[in-house]
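Dear H.,

Thanks for agreeing to be a second pair of eyes. The structure we're designing against is below in token form, covering all 287 positions.
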């Protein structure tokens, strides 16, 4: 009798948990479909070639987001160019060279604490340090340096975890063939974990593209079209900042939804490109 009661309770418990997990999946899928369908449905009718290829002109009332697209690409490229060598280098040192476990634990704890700080605090610190103390003024370079600090924990931790997944036998085999420490890291360890490093890049690009609060303080809202070097030293609005300005200050929600659609398309394009690179390196590693 007790056994039948136990089996009945177990059956009810399993069915309940299965229903709750299915409900959670359905809610998540519905929210994802809502974003994927609703935002493009509202934004695509406003998108045109003129909208994508011109800069805004308040004299004739035209709206263009080409400067915002270029500023977004500039700040992504500059941030990754700085944060990747620093983050991967720190991960290599902590995983392959550091022998003081207490120091490693302190650095890891500090990086985890940094990743939990609200972005608006990064913006305030970036404004005080980069814009005022370092005399960089409100510019894309100030915004990029602020985003470097924000994304450094993500790059460092993902690279570090990827390095830990490389089997120790790979290193021992390379050492047995007479390779030095750095040569082993460069030719054996890093190629074996390149997919994890690319994953960190994808996460960082997503955070860079979606950041608004920190850039409002450091990068500004200008809609001027500049080259890379001139643009990095000038104030400029990224797509997210521009979306905020059009929706919050100007009340032009059609433009905001159009920019949101462009952001979604850029995110998908970057993720597909990163996945293609990751697949290429996986195939190359398995040859």
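And this is the sequence the design step returned. I haven't edited it by hand at all.
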């Amino acid at each position: 009798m007790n056994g039948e009661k136990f089996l009945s309770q177990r059956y009810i418990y399993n069915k309940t948990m299965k229903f709750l997990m299915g409900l959670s999946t359905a809610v998540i899928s519905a929210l994802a479909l809502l974003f994927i369908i609703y935002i493009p449905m509202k934004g695509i009718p406003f998108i045109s070639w003129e909208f994508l290829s011109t800069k805004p002109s308040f004299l004739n009332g035209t709206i263009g987001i080409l400067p915002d697209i270029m500023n977004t690409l500039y700040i992504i490229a500059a941030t990754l160019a700085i944060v990747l060598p620093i983050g991967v280098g720190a991960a290599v040192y902590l995983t392959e060279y550091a022998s003081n476990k207490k120091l490693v634990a302190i650095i890891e704890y500090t990086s985890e604490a940094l990743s939990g700080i609200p972005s608006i605090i990064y913006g305030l610190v970036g404004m005080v340090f980069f814009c005022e103390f370092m005399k960089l003024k409100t510019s894309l370079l100030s915004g990029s340096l602020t985003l470097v600090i924000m994304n450094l924990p993500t790059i460092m931790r993902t690279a570090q975890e990827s390095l830990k997944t490389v089997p120790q036998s790979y290193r021992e085999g390379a050492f047995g063939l007479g390779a030095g420490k750095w040569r082993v890291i460069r030719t054996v360890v890093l190629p074996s974990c390149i997919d994890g490093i690319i994953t960190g890049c994808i996460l960082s690009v997503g955070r860079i593209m979606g950041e608004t609060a920190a850039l409002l303080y450091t990068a500004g809202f200008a809609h001027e079209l500049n080259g890379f070097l001139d643009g990095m030293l000038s104030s400029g609005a990224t797509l997210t900042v521009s979306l905020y300005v059009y929706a919050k200050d100007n009340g032009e929600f059609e433009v905001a939804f159009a920019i949101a659609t462009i952001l979604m398309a850029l995110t998908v394009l970057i993720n597909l490109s990163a996945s293609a690179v990751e697949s290429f390196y996986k195939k190359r590693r398995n040859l």
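Two observations from my side: The mean pLDDT is 84. The CA atoms of residues 185 and 218 lie 37 Å apart.

Warmly,
E.
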